[in-house]
Design brief:
Layout: H1 7-23, H2 26-30, E1 33-40, H3 45-48, E2 52-54, H4 56-68, E3 74-83, E4 88-97, E5 100-111, E6 114-125
Parallel strand pairs: 1-6
Antiparallel strand pairs: 1-2, 3-4, 4-5, 5-6
């Protein structure tokens, strides 16, 4: 029987995800992903040559390189929107790096308790 995340599990994932990024703990971030996960981010292209990243190992490599360019990266949770039946989560947050604050969100989809898809969306500057 497939493992399904509860509403509380999804809320906890959002909180732990923010905390892991704020510690610079890439291993904690990638630990939630399935080995064959897909991730999309326009910010990834300069690091890996594409905005679409396939697999946990490639995600780890991308995020290690990206964090080196963003010392002091800090996320502040705005809200987490949970779709328990659909096993999806949207984490809305403010990202602070290199003296700038901007709104962002991550769309996350889970199967059997593991993140199989993620998409990062970046928005307006937060004043």
């Amino acid at each position: 029987m497939p493992h399904r995340l509860s509403y509380a599990d999804l809320q906890n994932h959002a909180r732990h995800w923010i905390e892991a990024w704020n510690r610079g703990d890439v291993e904690a971030v990638v630990s939630a992903f399935s080995d064959d996960a897909e991730f999309i981010s326009a910010v990834a292209e300069p690091y890996v040559g594409t905005s679409r990243i396939q697999g946990k190992a490639a995600l780890r490599d991308y995020w290690v390189a990206a964090l080196a360019d963003r010392p002091g990266l800090h996320f502040e949770l705005v809200t987490a929107i949970c779709d328990e039946p659909g096993q999806q989560l949207v984490v809305h947050y403010i990202a602070s790096a290199n003296g700038k604050r901007a709104f962002a969100c991550e769309i996350m989809r889970f199967e059997n308790g593991r993140q199989v898809y993620g998409e990062a969306l970046y928005g307006a500057l937060a004043l």
